[in-house]
Amino acid sequence: MYFSRSKIPFERNANQADFYGHLGIYGYKREALIKMTELPQGSYEKAESLEQLRALQNGMKIKTSIVDFVPVGIDTAEDLEHFKRIISKAV
Fold first, then answer.
1. Do you find a cis peptide bond into 9, omega within 30 degrees of 0?
2. Rounded to whole angstroms, how far apart are CA atoms 86 and 84?
3. Which residues contact 30 (CB under 8 A, 6 or more apart)?
4. How far is CA 25 from CA 15, 43, 89, in A?
5. CATH class for domain 1-91?
């Protein structure tokens, strides 16, 4: 299908579709990792900065799971500081 940092599908009509967040924990078979790293970046990966899209755009399959919690995303320095504050309160 497709990964994005934005909501898919676009929510024109509220409460009509389920949305899932992205928790990036990856496990690759050796052969798949070699194949993926030899492929050129496609337009989707360049647009979203998500390497899974290189695999999908080139016909590779990705397995996903649904979990019942919202993870903390760490994509920026500010996200990391936010995460550190959460952890310091839990210790």
1. yes
2. 5
3. none
4. 28, 23, 24
5. alpha beta
Measured torsion, CA atoms of residues 18, 7, 46, 69, in degrees rounded to the nearest 10: -60
Tally the C-alpha atoms within 13 A of residue 68's C-alpha that lie toward its C-beta. Answer: 0
CB 19 within 8 A of CB 70: no
User: What does each of the 91 residues of the chain score in pLDDT, given as a tens digit?
Assistant: 787 878 788 888 988 988 777 777 788 899 999 999 999 999 999 999 888 899 999 999 888 888 787 777 788 899 999 989 988 987 7
Nearest-angstrom CA–CA distance, 41 and 5: 17
Name residues whose C-beta falls within 8 Å of residue 61's C-beta, 6 or more positions apart in sequence: 55
Q: pTM of the predicted model, to two decimals?
A: 0.65
Q: Is-contact 48 4, C-beta < 8 A?
A: yes
